Amino acid sequence: MAEAKPRVLVVDDDPDLLDLVQRSLSAYGFDVQTHTSALGVSNIVRASEPDFVLIDVNFPALKGDKVVGLARQYAPPGTRFILYSASDEAKLRSLAIASGADGYISKSVQGAELAQKLHAMRLKPRPASPNRNPSPVES
């Protein structure tokens, strides 16, 4: 029996970026769902039970780093929350620590490199408690 495709929810208000990420991750064996707003993410996480949630931090209504804490309450225990942003690394690291995210990835990372980082993260066990020392997602 074939192993299930890793499920990824990508949350960003840029439809072009969502399309690019969806096409590229799908080509590397991921089942990708997208959402264009920080609002409603908790409901989607509860319904779709993704393995990863890649979420931008810059939304008009509710910042992505705030959504992590809210959505985690509805996520299965193994779901990894990753801040995915064009912000500089120091800011991303700080937001990841404050939000309890499992890591962060720059939006400059796409395609095969993004898929490789997610596959590598999937193989690592998730800490039982929120990560207080998140780092860039490495391959």
UniProtKB/TrEMBL annotation:
Coiled-coil stretches, from where to where?
Answer: none
Residues bearing the modification 4-aspartylphosphate: 56
Domain Response regulatory residues, every copy: 7-122
The family database entries (PROSITE patterns) matched by this protein are listed as: RESPONSE_REGULATORY (PS50110)
Q: Check the UniProt entry and state the signal peptide residues, or none.
A: none
Q: Does the keyword Ribonucleoprotein apply?
A: no
Keyword Phosphoprotein present in the record's keywords: the answer is: yes
Pfam family for this entry, one:
Response_reg
Q: Which UniProt keywords apply?
A: Phosphoprotein
GO biological processes: phosphorelay signal transduction system
InterPro entries this protein is in? Bact_response_regulator, CheY-like_superfamily, Sig_transdc_resp-reg_receiver
Q: Which PANTHER family match?
A: RESPONSE REGULATORY DOMAIN-CONTAINING PROTEIN, STRESS RESPONSE REGULATOR PROTEIN 1
Q: Under what name is this protein listed?
A: Response regulator
